[in-house]
Design goal:
binds uridine-5'-diphosphate; 8 strands; 2 domains; 50% helix; alpha/beta; binds magnesium ion; 334 residues; 11 helices; eight-stranded mixed sheet
């Protein structure tokens, strides 16, 4: 290590609040973990950055937890958040965001598929005034049929639905301004929709081509089924974007139309029965009128319930989606 980077290291130890937090979700990455931490710290020290690394162990079943615990108790730049069980990548990232103190946050995978050497470039872009810089794995090193194709289709659909045009939503290597992620609640696989959710909040977003390596250690935690879960989450994001704060506008409106049509039909049938003195008992129109009126009432009450739920949703924002077992760090400031 050069003398310069030694100086930088001392600076980063002495300053308690880091400028940059690196968030890494870890699930069974024992082999790559030590190399990853080394690679990240080397790049950041060479660039004289004042940083902290936050690794979230998502209930690993291999020796990742032990390795992390040991490294975090020795190193000054590493904090380990250890989950009680496996919750998934999104809750792991949400926990990382919660504990990150840096003004900028960079997320990346724990398998060394992302290259820590790209971090300074993302930060420089963030400095240009963006709130979120997303990595774009231009030369992605994953399986063509099970991963690349579904991902291409998913990226296209996500772009169409959310209105945020990025080439690669799935790339974990992203840089954020802390305040952007501060009050974002993530569920399901929503971490990949962070750019879309941020866009709804008015964030400035851009992308940068980044390097991508084949997985050399451990195995991928996902297969083709992820695509379907992502599509379901996309529907949620679509709904949130459109109606979250005004469900009554949607359901109430539809309900009123249905109820109105049913009532008109009912009036017509009443006219036929009492003025024209015809039998209406066997007319399909009668069934339609009844169905429309009932549907209308149902939709309207659903809209009202959705309004109540929406208020609860917004007012109980602080509920975490995970339970932390312990936090390992050799600093005791928090
Ligand atoms: N991961 C996690 N919890 C899970 C699954 C994955 O924390 O339940 C982490 C995993 O350790 C890795 C990142 O999420 O750091 C991305 O996973 P993976 O590399 O398997 O996804 P891929 O690159 O194949 O899309
Ligand atoms: Mg990977």
């Amino acid at each position: 290590m050069s003398q310069l980077s030694n100086l930088c290291l001392t600076a980063s130890i002495n300053t308690s609040i880091p400028d940059l937090s690196i968030v890494v979700p870890i699930y069974n990455e024992a082999e790559s973990l030590p190399k990853l931490i080394e690679a990240i710290s080397q790049t950041l020290q060479e660039n004289c950055l004042n940083y902290e690394i936050i690794c979230v162990d998502d209930g690993s079943k291999d020796s990742s937890t032990e390795i992390l615990r040991q490294m975090a108790s020795k190193r000054h730049d590493l904090k380990a958040i250890i989950f009680r069980k496996n919750y998934g990548q999104t809750p792991a990232m949400a926990a990382g965001f919660k504990y990150a103190r840096g003004k900028a946050i960079v997320t990346l995978d724990g398998d060394l598929q992302n290259d820590p050497a790209d971090i300074p470039m993302l930060l420089a872009k963030l400095e240009e005034g963006y709130d979120l810089v997303s990595g774009w794995r231009k030369k992605r090193q994953d399986h063509a049929v099970t991963r690349l194709l579904p991902s291409k289709i998913a990226n296209w659909i996500i772009g169409r639905v959310t209105g945020v045009k990025l080439h690669d939503y799935g790339c974990s290597l992203k840089a954020y301004r802390n305040e952007l992620v501060e009050d974002m609640n993530l569920y399901g696989e929503l971490h990949r929709f962070l750019p879309a959710l941020a866009y709804i909040e008015g964030a400035r977003i851009t992308e940068l081509p980044v390097r991508h390596h084949p997985r050399r250690y451990g195995s991928s935690k996902y297969g083709i089924w992820r695509t379907f879960r992502v599509v379901m989450d996309l529907l949620t994001v679509f709904f949130m974007k459109k109606f979250l704060t005004r469900p009554m506008h949607v359901f109430g409106f539809l309900g009123m139309i249905s109820f109105g049509l049913g009532t008109l039909l009912g009036i017509y049938l009443t006219f036929v029965k009492f003025i024209l003195a015809q039998n209406i008992g066997d007319r399909p129109l009668l069934i339609l009128a009844v169905v429309l009126i009932l549907t209308g009432v149902q939709l309207f009450s659903f809209g009202l319930l959705a309004e109540l739920l929406m208020r609860t949703y917004h007012e109980s924002q602080n509920r975490p989606i995970y339970r932390v077992r312990e936090i390992v760090s050799n600093k005791n400031e928090d």
